Amino acid sequence: xxxxxxxxxxxxxxxxxxxxxxxxxxxxxxxxxxxxxxxxxxxxxxxxxxxxxxxxxxxxxxxxxxxxxxxxxxxxxxxxxxxxxxxxxxxxxxxxxxxxxxxxxxxxxxxxxxxxxxxxxxxxxxxxxxxxxxxxxxxxxxxxxxxxxxxxxxxxxxxxxxxxxxxxxxxxxxxxxxxxxxxxxxxxxxxxxxxxxxxxxxxxxxxxxxxxxxxxxxxxxxxxxxxxxxxxxxxxxxxxxxxxxxxxxxxxxxxxxxxxxxxxxxxxxxxxxxxxxxxxxxxxxxxxxxxxxxxxxxxxxxxxxxxxxxxxxxxxxxxxxxxxxxxxxxxxxxxxxxxxxxxxxxxxxxxxxxxxxxxxxxxxxxxxxxxxxxxxxxxxxxxxxxxxxxxxxxxxxxxxxxxxxxxxxxxxxxxxxxxxxxxxxxxxxxxxxxxxxxxxxxxxxxxxxxxxxxxxxxxxxxxxxxxxxxxxxxxxxxxxxxxxxxxxxxxxxxxxxx
Length: 498
Prior knowledge:
The protein has about 500 residues and is α/β, with parallel strands linked by helices. It contains 20 helices and eleven strands. The strands form four sheets. A five-stranded parallel sheet has the order 5-4-3-6-7, with helices on both faces. The radius of gyration is 27 Å and the shape is globular.
């Protein structure tokens, strides 16, 4: 039996005792709270602030509708019917981006989206009411404008309070970055409110007394308490320490970090931090070791079966639902081209496992768009786009024929957007990880389409690759549904269209 030295036992026992003393000094920490910062839910990171906001608004809307209707709940069926319209409104508030961390707090942005959500929920409830008597008699139809106006006022009041006292102020992780060099500067450069909603940057600590080079972070935030780091971290209510050393060979303050960990302070890698806070795999910080040991990239046959089943059902439903738009668009293209040239066009793209396939779209450009024989990125105000093409591209109507690709299995509803083979070969040369996005089926919409504007250059494609890798690593039924719901905002408000 292997013996443990007395010195090793004494040292570990001392660390545990010090950690216990630190916990006694500060009491229970709040890093175990569900709503602090972002947390993983079904393989995707969601923000506690907006989950709390969604819950508050749903409860308030349910109470409002109950008050306006004067309904008496006499059973479970009545309760479900009463909660259904507020739930529908909450669903559309989410679909227009009002529970997304990238939203803005200005009045025009919020008002437009509340108005759109009210219209969409009213239309949906009306259509449901036409085909079933399940919610007939609900006050949304009898009170009409009054109920909608009251709902808007309630939402605006809750939002005003949220943006004033919660958003970016409460429920944030207090983080300390272990390093002051190039890697640490990536966190220092996060300026947008959307990127910093989940955390408060308390400071940076030198990785070792021998750390070389000039600090590349805000000097006023550099902490020089390495010798008593654990005590300093507990004193300042640090929730998490992010390891951001430039040189992995530098010696860690293992004893101090161990005391921090045993005191309830999380210790995380830079790549894990960016994955959680920005929804990306940060290519500038990437190292193969992290990819090997991190969770994700797990094949799941049952998930693949579910995904294909949903793709089949949804593509049939959407082709039927949008058939009037498909017919009108086809007629408009035929009239504009005076019957000359194709209405649809197909183009070779790279699909799952790098296999080529033909993607189908409505023709939105002139027939001589690439007469030179050289492939080109689509540009803003592209002169090759026709008048009809300009309209259908803004509202993504030109993508509708891709539902056929989904139906026959070349594509999925959700996944990385497929690129042309010429672009893929070039981008593979720029970054070897580009080919990893082909581990899953390409999609009509995707995580990168929600988070990044239209890509029209090599740099844009590599930026979007960071989001695509996040999807490949974490894709799940929940994330697919979230992306599909959020795509409503992309279409309605023409985000990233060109």
